[in-house]
Design goal:
It contains 16 helices and 20 strands. By secondary structure, it is of the alpha/beta class. The longest helix has 18 residues, at about 165-185.
């Protein structure tokens, strides 16, 4: 079988940072090839170079017989690219975005085209909807559809399913496998999810800009080694979250519809649901960031309706997106968090030292937050959220986009914090992480459809929980 991609000695530096350091790699035509590595290892730089978006400093690369540097116009005609961040036009509708891409290649728009039909069928009911109003999963489906317009021989995807729900993730992976099988399209996929790398024929492990191992995914992936969570009953006496009939409406639209549940002290509570199910709206109400339309709730004994401003002093919140100032150092960000909660200088110094030690951040104390890899940014966000020793910690997809090693480290932190008696609510789309929670709550269209310890008994296989999730959500888009 001939090679579709042949890379010889590829290197790229950004200032003093060597993003790629003499990469050698061959990818066969029609192969599904995964690229795996920690944050900052060089995955995105390598893919952007292969897409001709970034020029290498040295080395040679051949893509289907075309030279990467001298023949980039020809290469762009035969590749498709789905970046990790949504890059289409938010103020255009689904169909307008697709027609824009067909016009770029001088092609007619044919929704029944064999290559785009498997993914377009999910988009068809929303063809008139603006891209900005799509869920995360639908945005990524639109990006994939546009990348397939020119029937690429090589499809490159940079973490295409990060931050989207499990059902949309499965839809996209199924489409990729169908495209590969039917058209022989070569697929290069970088992903932080083990099951996505496992579906590849081969994979490469990249560290510090170098390819250190190539082989079957099972051979190159490091073990995750986080055990299934076993309930710690002696912590489960006092309710720290009590919700009854909580509702939130935006005009005539009901985002959260009369939900009721309790979460106990020291419990790790998994909050699941498809994009748009109402999870974030519910969390915002519980955090005192949005006032309920009706219903009641108490967080650490504080009434949501009467004292929602006071709640903020008893909770910690780690957002899916990094919200800390990029131009402050790690220590400065923690000092800022301490100041916000009115912690005195002497006490703040003690707590900062403790957080730096507990979270392994001591060596990064003087580093700018904006220059840290994603996994380390998550740690700093944890530290900031823990500065005032909250009773309840809300985590909105805390490991979205991080590699398996960083995910393991973050979950070790989550477990340690819960062991000290802190109640933790985790919003996640990762079916592996569901096994590490005491109980799970699945929302569908603003309503809680299932709640309890929903994990299949006697197994640690995340695919089994996906079946539970799919049955509850009924694969709604």
């Amino acid at each position: 079988m001939s090679n579709s991609v042949c890379i010889q000695g590829l290197s790229k530096c950004f200032g003093k940072v060597k993003a790629l350091d003499g990469v050698f790699l061959e990818i066969s035509e029609g192969e599904k090839f995964g690229i795996y590595g920690a944050d900052g290892a060089g995955k995105t730089t390598l893919e952007r170079i292969l897409c001709t978006l970034t020029k290498p400093d040295s080395g040679n690369t051949d893509i289907f017989g075309f030279d990467l540097v001298n023949d980039k116009r020809e290469i762009r005609k035969i590749i498709g690219f789905v970046p990790s961040t949504f890059s289409l036009y938010l103020d255009l509708s689904v169909e307008e975005n697709i027609r824009f891409h067909t016009n770029l290649f001088g092609l007619p728009f044919n929704k029944n085209d064999a290559m785009i039909e498997p993914i377009y069928r999910y988009l068809a009911p929303f063809s008139d909807r603006l891209a900005r109003n799509l869920s995360g999963g639908m945005k990524q489906k639109l990006a994939l559809c546009c990348a397939l317009i020119n029937k690429p021989r090589l499809l490159i995807l940079d973490e295409p399913t990060t931050g989207i729900d499990a059902t949309s993730r499965k839809d996209i992976i199924n489409c990729l496998e169908q495209i590969n099988a039917q058209f022989g399209t070569t697929i290069i996929l970088s992903s932080p999810y083990r099951n996505e790398i496992m579906m590849c024929d081969r994979a490469a492990l990249i560290e510090n800009g170098k390819i250190v191992r190539v082989g079957k995914p099972s051979e190159i992936l490091p073990p995750e080694d986080v055990d299934v969570r076993h309930t710690n009953e002696h912590l489960k006496v006092e309710n720290m979250i009590e919700v009854e009939g909580l509702t939130k409406c935006f005009g005539t639209f009901t985002a959260v519809n009369h939900i009721s549940f309790n979460v106990r002290k020291g419990e790790i509570f998994g909050f699941l649901g498809a994009n748009g199910a109402g999870k974030t709206t519910a969390i915002r109400m519980l955090c005192g960031l949005s006032k309920p339309s009706s219903g009641s709730g108490r967080i650490a004994g504080i009434d949501l309706n009467r004292n929602y401003e006071e709640i903020k002093f008893h909770i910690g919140y780690v957002s899916q997106r990094d919200c800390l100032p990029a131009d402050l150092t790690v220590s400065e960000n923690l000092r800022l968090a301490a100041g916000i909660y009115g912690i005195g200088r002497k006490e703040a110094n003690s707590r900062i030292d403790e957080c730096l030690r507990r979270l392994g951040l001591a060596d990064y104390a003087d580093r700018l937050f904006g220059g840290l890899p994603l996994g380390w940014k998550r740690r700093v966000s944890f530290a900031a959220a823990l500065m005032h020793d909250p009773s309840v910690l809300f985590l909105d997809e805390p490991t979205s986009g991080v590699d398996v090693i960083a995910r393991k480290q973050i979950w070790n932190i989550i477990r340690a914090v819960a062991a000290r008696g802190t109640t933790i609510v985790v919003v996640t789309h990762n079916m592996e992480e569901v096994l590490w929670c005491d109980r799970q709550c699945i929302m569908v269209d603003g309503v809680i459809k299932a709640m309890g310890d929903l994990r299949p008994k006697g197994t640690s296989d995340n695919s089994d929980f996906y079946e539970v999730f799919e049955q509850v959500t009924q694969t709604r888009q």
